[in-house]
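Task: fold both queries, return tokens.
Query 1:
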Amino acid sequence: MISRRHFTVALPLAATLPTMTLAATAPTEDDLLWLEDVQGERALAWVRARNAETEAVLEKQPGFAATRARIRSILDSRDRIPAVVRRGAWLYNLWQDEHNPRGLWRRTTLDEYRKREPAWQTVLDVDALGRAEGVNWTWAGAIALGPDYRRCLVKLSRGGADAHVVREFDIETRRFVDGGFELPEAKSEVEWVNADELLVATDFGPGALTDSGYPRVVKRWRRGTPLSAAKTVFEGEKTDVAAGMSVDHTPGYERTVFARSVDFYRSEMFLLQGERLLRIDKPADAELGFWKSRVLITLRSDWTVAGRSWPSGSLLVADAAAFLRGERVFDALFTPTATRSLAGMATTRDTLLVEILDNVAGRIEEWRQADGRWQRREVAAPFPGTLSVAALHDPELADDPLADAYLLQYTDFLTPDTLSLGRVGSDAREVLKSRPAFYDAAGMRVEQRFAKSRDGTRVPYFVVWPRAAKADGANPTLLYGYGGFEVSMQPYYSGVVGSSWLAQGGVYVLANIRGGGEFGPAWHQAAVGANRQKAYDDFAAVAEDLIATRVTSPRHLGIQGGSNGGLLVGAVMVQRPELFNAVVCQVPLLDMKRYTKLLAGASWMAEYGDPDDPAQWAFISRYSPYQNVRREQKMPHVLFVTSTRDDRVHPGHARKMAERMRQQGHPVMYWENIEGGHGGAADNAQRAQMTALEYAFLRLQLGR
């Protein structure tokens, strides 16, 4: 889930089971570095051997084949809600199923989309393209040029990696453009300037990338000229996370903005004015965006300016021209409270739609200016659960019939997603699509509870109970967490979790620990850097509360997390092994001594710290799983899951941790998908296999 770099996923036991703080005593020389050789023959032989061992055990578990088939049918279901992006008169969607595992990029109209069986036009068949070219292409997105949206820049990834190629494509002829724009494989960013020019940030050769492996240089590239002739227009520093750009084509408000991501949370932005760059004066960790004549700013830190103070987590709006002149007159459209935080926003022609988390449940507000004043309207929508909005307005169209329209999606743990078409100023909505129920939720129930962490902080978590379950300490229970990068864990409906776990008698728990964004920037910042241990204390506190209230017991309690969540469960597994009997550790960071030297790891130093700085390694070393796992500890059973093609979090983390634990005699299983990228799988067949292995492992370890 670690991805955000663009400018644009238990009281009584707390006293008796204190959190263990461990000091690193691993060898100074890492004898397992050979497992970091991603495609090395020795490393891949090790991977194949571990995969075979794991599959030999888990595929023989009762019901494995049926579980895998059921998961695949859910993932391939034609009754899923097709996620759409509007471009002019069309709604675009990427569709994957058993016949199109890599996907059909297709389009339809809104009138057709309203129908149960819309008529879709196939724009690009990714599977057919891969067969024709002999490459395992996966879809990585497309950037279209308005207002006619005929030409687009298609991104294609080999096996699901973040790195991708870029090719110019003609949507009307359904063909790649002969002699058109084309970029080789890299972690590129591209934007249309006009029909004949692009802004390109890519790997231009030596010195063009940051220490994090992302583009440092932005160039302007004209059609018909070689990329080598492109003119440099912006540069970041080698120590930055990345340099990038955005181009706004809204008539009358055309703007080009360049940015340096100084770290994961701080940026410098520059507005192109003629041939010169104007530095935009904003707080370094604030996010800023333009909306026609206005500027929108979201704060991560308190800000005192022009005699006013604005708290962290606020959303401010100002006149863009006045702001660029240096005036600092704002209206606050949202200010946080102890339980309410800003979750997102979308813009129609004249209205700002604001997503709010209220005790980790979604609400929507509309804000619009009338008679010189900003006016607020709360949207009547389902509650409590998760709400998200997507505006349909196309600002490049002079007379847009959908200027005030938006899509509203609602879900919760037991309610399948519903997608509705709404218009600002009204609570009347048209239901466009509803996902079917993939399991019988009758008799199931959801609770929100609070655990007390080691420092006294109240930590919320959700418990989803299967039917007829009792608090007898014997329920197989899966606790999931993330706790990083200001990412919120919200209620969601999962046919896979419901059918493979809840319907089989398992309890599912979602923890809202510090490090996430559930209660705004302060909730995140409380567990950053030297305070990282607080996230692990929170997660352990939830586990303790589940045990103390007899939801489950250590024999029946398992934990799961991916990416930063993989680090979470790895650290808590090592610190508090007595609490758990199963750990599913997915695409994880685990070797925090070397994480900055592996792939995109350097981009996350603002979250974890710099292990090469002795003062910072002093606190990182206390929780880094790879350095702290011990032979003499009794560890829970663990399943590591990763991908060879993950070019964000290096698979060496999982490989080395698994081998270290094997050498120490701990019960370890390991499975690595040869494709998949950071998501672990490239298509639904791979996702079904991976997920079925995980549930077979959990049932084996946690069953009654």
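Query 1 returned. Query 2:
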Amino acid sequence: MRPRFVILLCLLFLAPLFSGAQVSFSTIADELSIHLNDVVQVQFIAENATQIEDFRAPAFRDFKVMHGPIETSGMSMVNNQVTQYKALTYILQPLRKGRLSIPGASALINGKKMQSNKIIIEVGDNASRQTNPYPMNPGISPFQQTVEEEYLLSPGENAGDKIKDNLLVRLELDKTTAYIGEPIVASYKLYTRLRSESRVSKRPSMNGFSVYDMIEPDGSGPTIEILNGKSYQVHIIRKTQLFPLQEGEFMLEPVELENVVRFLRTGSESGQGSNRSPLQKLFDDLLTDQQGNWEEHRVTLSSKPERITIKALPEGAPASFNGAVGKFTISGKLLNSVIAAGDNATFELFIDGKGNLPLVNAPQLTLPEGFTQFDPQVTEEINKMVAPMEGFKKFSFAIIPETPGKYLLPAVPFSYFDPSTRQYRTIQTDSIRLEVTPAANRKPASGPATGVTIPAKEDNRTIWIIGMLGAIAMLATIFLLLKKQKPSSWTIKQAETAPSKPAETAGELLATPALPQIPSDPFATAREAVVNNDPPAFYHAIDRALWEIISGKLQLAGSSEQKPLAMQLLAAKGFGIAESDHLKKCWQQCEWALYTPSTILQIDNSLLDQAESLAATIEAL
């Protein structure tokens, strides 16, 4: 056996010990759409794990376990990266049709509790197709498929042509026509068969849409896709869910990437560069025994712009329609159905469903006469990683009845537009009974001999007027005392030389100024990131601090933190055009950092100064 082969085998076995590969735990199925009489292979795979304990498989409620678990382990090499894996494989047969869920498994991996992802299997009618229930290689992740790299340049071969055929950027849309409020999924992808490094040089603007990212930066590894008959490694640059805000024709701008591509130019005298077998190429790569010279090429690529048509919502919207688009349900309840007059009752209103939930506002309550209601508190739980978004919003209304009695709170109507049927629908809550008892702390006033009584409400008004007069008199007395005791210049000089003593009089106590509260520093996390030289944390902290200051100033809820709305409200408060441009540039720089590899990202200290200046301007509005 040749020495280089021996070295290669040693490297293959020792590579996992020296690689700092990230541990992952995932659930993978060989097919996501099967027939009722088919079987599906489900694998729970731990990659780069040195110790796995306390593995707990999920309950396969909608499946029959035909075989398993099958335990496998091994290693694979993709793009010169060695990955070690361990897997448990189950062969399952569905018990019914529909969208069947397989929950994730749990295990203690390298001392840390981990949960694999959930998957959905679409099960249709019976079919005669037979599936092999025992595959030859269980446990191999689809992410470990190999893409043949086109990094060799033969003598006379043009690098530009090779880049054009093997490196491209695409914008994919799930639809190009939608109604206002109907979500559109836009995915910017990089397809490559080359050895390249890329960075975003121009981000697409998405004016006219509310934008929600569906994948965290660096939160999704590369996948393998077949395009024009060739396998590509695919990186998601950005995947967003767009909610149109107005009708018209919109052009989604392209994303631009700057790429550095490395080729191995083989020599004509060797005659071996392009004729080597794939195994020989692998040996040469690992043992740095390449035949030729490496060369770099820089190229800027961009996706094609895509046109989107946004249609206006149909006429005839119900009175209770406030912009909700999707499919929803509504329910309401009182936390306390019996309260005393003048006390708070809490009415909770839930809107569940799929659609533009972040943009859904609270329905209007219609209450009986004598009730006071306040603006609701809003809480939400929304899964923004699926399209359309799904979850719920809860609106908590505080209402105060003034008069005892038994009331029937009317049903609350809620209307939405369903894009699938192109129709408006109106739904409503049930009406709710509320009993209001006399206030416990109110006593009927003893009237004259005629038996006429003064209503409790008049007593409250009288007490309130007397209290206000008393407070005014007290403030006037305190003002006169302070004015009378104002020290002269001699008194101040004496106070500097005399020993201090505790205040003894009420006047002195009231004259003692309260210590000012020191406001918390919203940019403390950013400063800490500078000290730790952590660029991603720095830009995230700047972005979050600006939003905290803007939301606090404008009283914006979490789902209302939208840049167009914030800019409009700030302008209404007198925020200048120049300041608005500075704020936009700060936001752009922070967003840019999300799509820049952390290895080349650096901290811009001037950005912190700009953000602090903007914060001071906003606070002063």
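Both queries returned. Flag for query 2: The chain has a mean pLDDT of 78.
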